[in-house]
Amino acid sequence: QVQLVESGGGLVQAGESLRLSCVTSGRTFSTYSMGWFRQAPGKEREFVAAISGNGDSVNYANSVRGRFAISRDNAKNTVYLQMNSLKPEDTALYYCATDLRYNIWTGYGADYWGKGTLVTVSS
């Protein structure tokens, strides 16, 4: 049984930074891709960032590229999302996910999800 537990969300002002963490259990962490998604009120869940099992490949949504950075520490079974220069439009529930997949029609998806951590950015 795969478990993903996010932490690090909170309330910050625009321009500030926040780092999210996601601890994974129940599998060999380094084997699997990891990613972050987010969902704002009234909107569909969207892809934010992804990282390969060994950390040698990353990908970002255009809306966060240059501001956010995904990383992983396989010794700690943890993936991080460093969020800099936060904007009010970044406000959302952020989900950690694993076993990412990509479909040319629907974009990124995942097989396992955490419960989410809330990030609120005030102007």
List keywords for this structure.
single chain; globular; four-stranded antiparallel β-sheet; mainly beta
Description:
The protein is 0% helix and 56% strand. The strands form 2 sheets. Strands 2, 4, 5, 6, 9, 10 and 11 form a 7-stranded mixed sheet that branches. Strands 1-3-8-7 form a 4-stranded antiparallel sheet, with no helix packed on it. With 123 residues, the protein is an all-beta fold. The N and C termini lie far apart (40 Å). The radius of gyration is 13 Å and the shape is globular.
Task: Please give a quick description of this structure.
By secondary structure, the protein is mainly beta. It has strands at residues 3-7, 10-13, 18-25, 34-39, 46-51, 58-60, 68-73, 78-83, 92-103, 107-113, 117-122. It is built from no helices and eleven strands.
